[in-house]
Design brief:
Radius of gyration: 26 Å
CATH architecture of the largest domain: 2-Layer Sandwich
Largest sheet: 11 strands, mixed
CATH topology of the largest domain: Alpha-Beta Plaits
Helix content: 10-25%
Oligomer: single chain
Shape: globular
CATH class of the largest domain: Alpha Beta
Number of helices: 7
Distance between the termini: 59 Å
Structural class: alpha+beta
Length: 389
């Protein structure tokens, strides 16, 4: 049946086979002709064919291939677009690309650039606030949405459908207005316990948020901020920690304003696997002294894969695949059982919040892996030195 449009009859009536003109309230230049091939009404969970629909009826129409959300079907004799809520423009973008890790293709069903591209453009048919652009590379696509959660829902949906790909860190979409570079601002409303208010306001100041209103509500406080979209990157988990899981936050696009200055995203570094192999307890025991691990023993890793978080600002290379040398020499106590601290299981949202500019998330139906864009350590160091120069 092709694309099906669902809408309500506001004036007049509609029948199968009727010629219509399609127009858009927000784009007066958009106007084309079509024909109603089939007409259905919804009865419970079923679609029932009907011969005529009048004012107030909610109907399903097929036969108009390019129809989109928000458009109006009119009689050709009287073309008048009905007002429709304008969809907010995207404010955050991420790069979706073909998986290039050493484990590429081992877990996913759809792995090629053509399959990923077709799936992303198919999503546009039902998500009008999403934007997809081709890039100079045939293997990567720029996907823009209304925030981290909007894009993470798409990533998780594709993952469950069997797609394998990799994504970059989210970036705020800048816009030049009257010669001044501006960034998107969000109106953030939080509802927190009184004892958590100080911690939340401190973090908001650090992230360039400006307090607009404060309303006490019993033992809780409602705070309203205007904050740069990039200031919210990676804040959700911090917010839940600061409020002991009792805080509620919601944001909506407010306006574009001149850049608010630098907002540091992460003060910690990454623990990076030294070689390809299987993580073993002996290597992990030595690595866990350098920071918090993200993987359990027995995990397959590759060179350049991120296996943990370093408390220091710089990245550290660790060998989680290192095995104990089997020699005859033993010291007292050297064969004691190794005790590994529990690893931190990272969700998709936590992965998106964690990765830095030079890191990627490898998304497969079975796994989420963090990695450096440049896997080889020597090439990574050369690129870093070149960037500083």
């Amino acid at each position: 049946m092709g694309r099906i449009a669902i809408g309500r009859v506001t004036r007049g009536s509609v029948q199968p086979g009727k010629e219509v003109t399609i127009c858009d309230y927000h784009n007066p230049g958009t106007r084309y002709k079509g024909r109603v091939v089939t007409l259905y009404q919804i009865d419970g969970l079923k679609r029932v064919p009907c011969d005529n629909a009048t004012v107030g009826d909610i109907v399903c129409i097929s036969g108009i291939e390019n129809i989109s959300i928000g458009e109006t079907l009119c009689d050709p004799e009287l073309v008048e677009a009905l007002p429709f809520q304008k969809i907010s423009q995207p404010t955050v973008e991420m790069t979706f690309s073909v998986n290039t890790s050493p484990f590429a293709g081992s877990e996913g069903k759809f792995v090629t650039s053509r399959q990923i591209r077709d799936r992303l453009y198919r999503e546009l048919l039902k998500d009008v606030s999403l934007k997809v652009q081709d890039t100079d590379s045939a293997d990567s696509f720029l996907v823009s949405g209304r925030g981290e959660m909007h894009l993470s829902i798409l990533i998780e949906t594709m993952r469950r459908e069997g797609y394998e790909f990799q994504v970059s860190t989210p970036r705020a979409m800048m816009k030049e207005i009257d010669g001044v570079m501006c960034e998107p601002m969000e109106r953030l409303v939080v509802d927190v316990p009184e004892e958590s208010m100080g911690a939340v306001m401190e973090k908001m100041g650090y992230r360039k948020g400006e307090l607009q209103a404060m309303t006490p509500q019993g033992s809780r406080v409602k705070l309203e901020f205007v904050i740069p979209s990039r200031g919210l990157f990676g804040y959700k988990n911090e917010f839940l920690t600061d409020t002991k899981g009792e805080g509620i936050m919601a944001s909506v696009f407010d306006s574009y304003e001149p850049l608010k200055g630098d907002i540091p995203r992460r003060t910690t570094g990454s623990l990076i696997a030294f070689e390809t192999g299987t993580a073993v307890p002996y290597g992990m025991f030595n690595a866990q002294e350098r920071g918090q691990l993200f993987i359990p023993a027995g995990t397959e890793v590759y060179e350049g894969m991120i296996v943990g978080q370093s408390p220091k600002a710089e990245d550290l290379v660790v060998n989680v695949c290192k095995r104990k040398q089997l020699t005859n020499t033993r010291a007292a106590g050297s064969d004691d059982a190794l005790r590994l601290t529990p690893h931190k299981e990272m969700s998709l949202e936590q992965c998106i919040e964690f990765i830095a500019e030079d890191e990627l998330i490898e998304v497969t139906p079975k796994s989420l892996r963090l990695r450096k864009q440049i896997l080889d350590k020597s090439l990574r160091m050369k690129a870093a030195a070149k960037a500083k120069a």
